[in-house]
Amino acid sequence: SGVSALQMKAFLHTLSSVLLHCGTALNAHKEAGWLTLNPQKLSCSEVLSLLQCWATLARDVSLLSALQTLVNKRK
């Protein structure tokens, strides 16, 4: 159950590649004077949504339960 070490390694490698490419692209666009997107902070709702997606994929029942408790408190 959950995410294996191999799956986690592949996910982190892919995430690292995407972030590296994004940073390179943003710097190139900035140097060229092209319009780029300004970095934005994630809202609490967006962070909770990402955590819920991760907990679902990882089948992390304790994290899902904690998130549900947090959502119920925010209502």
Automatic annotation (TrEMBL):
<keyword id="KW-0732">Signal</keyword>
<protein>
    <submittedName>
        <fullName>Uncharacterized protein</fullName>
    </submittedName>
</protein>
<feature type="signal peptide">
    <location>
        <begin position="1"/>
        <end position="25"/>
    </location>
</feature>
